[in-house]
Amino acid sequence: MSFVIKSTAERAQVWQQQFARHLPDIPFRVWPDIGDPAEVEYLAAWVPPDNLVERFPNLKILFSVGAGIDQFDLAAIPPHIQIVRMIETSLTEGMVAYVQFAVRAIQRDMLRYVSQQRTHVWQAHSVRAASAFRVGVMGLGQLGVPVACVLRDMGYVTQGWARSAREIDGVRCFAGEAEQAEFIASTDILVCLLPLTEQTAGILNRDLFARLPRGASLVQCGRGRHLVTDDLIAALDEGQLSAAILDVTDPEPLPADHPLWDRPDVLITPHIASATPTESGGMAIVNNIRRYLNGETPVGLVNRKMGY
Ligand code: GLV
User: Fold this and answer.
1) pTM of the model
2) Which end of the chain has fewer CB atoms surrounding its CB within 10 Å, N or C?
3) Does ligand 1 come within 6 angstroms of the Cβ of 92?
């Protein structure tokens, strides 16, 4: 049996040391130097190589080095291969910190002040309290739940929406299609932390924006393809939305001549809200292989039917 990493050289180097120390019986290979392909039982990658099954006939687990697995072609991965995504404390903390910043920036009018600074305008706007904002988190999973709890503790009226029913202390939870309309209609700052699936692609569109209260804002930390960019631009132009903070775009990188860049009502960051830390990310995989070898379920095992 062997483990193959297909990722950055830095990650490969650190993980190799961690494997040598914690899983010394599993040979560690760095793509493309994979040794005997028939030996490969574990593969960690952001984007795995093509023809996965022909290449690695004995592959048992495919690990995503990130939180998402939408970059995998699930249909091309046979069901006997377990797919495991990255669930790790610092990755979660990074996302919580980013959303805290983004929601606070909207509450305190920071996009407006940045644009005033550009034109040397010294003008104060009245401050609205956190409790005057209803923040709605779409996606109540590994990232969405901690994010919602922190927003609640910051004093925002916090609610969440997910595919299935959830219960979170002090956070009003809505579930499924049936309750989406009520959730959207009562959300002033919409935070997208959904996984990208066939059902959620394009969910942030004109129709949804029209159902938000007028002047609502968007914090987009999901995947670029959740958002129909032209619909966002139209909603901002019409004043239906007042601001958007985007950490993900479609495509990435956002082309230099894209109209989103120069908008004063949009803040763009280049997919940096959160990333897998090298050290603890490696240990998350080590611990998951140990779990697997003990007959336990790896943390972050993907439910293929749900697609996350
Ligand atoms: C980044 O977007 C990740 O999935 O970790």
Assistant:
1) 0.96
2) N
3) no
Best probe residue, ligand 1, of 46, 247, 274 (max atoms within 8 Å of C-beta): 274
Instruction: Tell me the percentage of the chain whose pLDDT exceeds 70.
Output: 100
| pLDDT recorded at residue 90 | 96
Q: Name the phi and psi angles at 175, rounded to 5.
A: -130, 140
Quick one: average pLDDT of 19-42?
Answer: 98
The tens digit of pLDDT for each residue in 142-186 reads 999 999 999 999 999 999 999 999 999 999 999 999 999 999 999
What architecture is domain 89-268? 3-Layer(aba) Sandwich (3.40)
Give the distance (Å) from ligand 1 centre to CA of residue 66: 4
Instruction: Note the pLDDT tens digit of each residue in 232-276.
Output: 999 999 999 999 999 999 999 999 999 999 999 999 999 999 999
Pick among 3.40.630.10, 3.40.50.720, 3.40.30.10, 3.75.10.10: CATH of 2-88+276-293:
3.40.50.720
Closest C-alpha to 111, from 228, 307, 264: 264
120 as an active site residue: the answer is no
Task: Report pLDDT for 137.
Answer: 99
Where are the alpha helices (H) located in the chain, listed in sequence order?
Answer: 9-22, 52-55, 89-107, 110-118, 144-153, 176-185, 206-211, 229-237, 278-293
Is residue 193 in contact with ligand 1, taking CB distance under 6 Å? no
Distance 129 CA to ligand 1 centre (A): 32
Q: How far is the CA of 271 from the centre of ligand 1 (A)?
A: 8
The yes-or-no answer on residue 223 being catalytic is: yes
Segments of the chain assigned to CATH 3.40.50.720: 2-88+276-293, 89-268
121: buried, middle or exposed (CB in 10 Å: 19+, 13-18, 0-12)?
A: exposed
Q: Is 144 in the pocket of ligand 1 (CB under 6 A)?
A: no
